[in-house]
Amino acid sequence: MSFTNSFSRPAPEVTIGFTYGPDPYDINFVFPIPTSDHPILETPLVKLTPFIPRIHAETYLTRTAGYPELYRYYPFQFSTLDELLPWIEGFIRRDTGSILFAIIDKTKSGDVEGEEGALAGTIGLLKTSPENLTTEIGGLVVFPPFQRTHVTTHASGLLLRWLLDLPSASPPGLGLRRVQWSAHPENVGSRRVAERLGMKLEGCMRWMWALRESAEGKKGREGDTLRGRPGRDSVLYALCWDDWEGGGREVVMGLLKPRIG
Predict the structure, then answer these.
(1) Are 129 and 118 within 8 A, CB to CB?
(2) Which of these, 21, 23, 36, 28, lies nearest to 5 by C-alpha position?
(3) Which residues pair with 237 in a beta bridge?
(4) Per-residue pLDDT tens over the stretch 141-187
(5) Fold of the domain built from segment(s) 41-255
(6) Which of 43, 92, 175, 194 has the fewest beta carbons under 10 Å from its own?
(7) What are the extents of the domains in the chain?
(8) pTM of the complete model beyond 0.85
């Protein structure tokens, strides 16, 4: 099997305040990423490919424009490249435990260079620890035209299969022990996805994030240094290796069957 952690492309002309990143683009993830020659992160309907700013960023912003509700429960919101690119560079690329994937819907007309399909959203991994064999699925943003289709389930299921299958499996996985998923307590959609994937509810972590002033959260106390930014609780789900081998894999693989709609 061969892997790659970089993409070599011509450097673009950049006129904004923050560049698209290094050239060639360094994914900088702690685990190797399967190449297109080994379609581990792919079903007949959906493909996951590393989010490369010069390829995906402008389409991402076009697809999210006019939908501020996509960021309703998040501490971030992006409307320009000057907002999006520093976040990708600082929060994702420079952290070896994080990676962001572009979700490609293979059932739609292609609008992504080099891909036979349309950009449907993003999904990522956070807090990945090879020392503990753990990670968290996050950064899930699915554009409204692709919601309530196969996209979210297939993107999430593909990651779980890759993360929890052993390296000796076919196709090979990373053999992690734990994959977690956190959601705003009122984010019913996110919670339903976790439950559909067979994840187990473990509890609620209070005051985990400080959100944007316009986001939905809990009011903080008077006089704290965040000056009115609301706080967010997170309900925590997880799927561990023993859940996976105790029937979880069959649940996810059933969801990955090629049903459209």
Answers:
(1) no
(2) 28
(3) 181, 201
(4) 999 999 999 999 999 999 999 999 999 999 999 999 999 999 999 99
(5) Aminopeptidase (3.40.630)
(6) 175
(7) 41-255
(8) yes
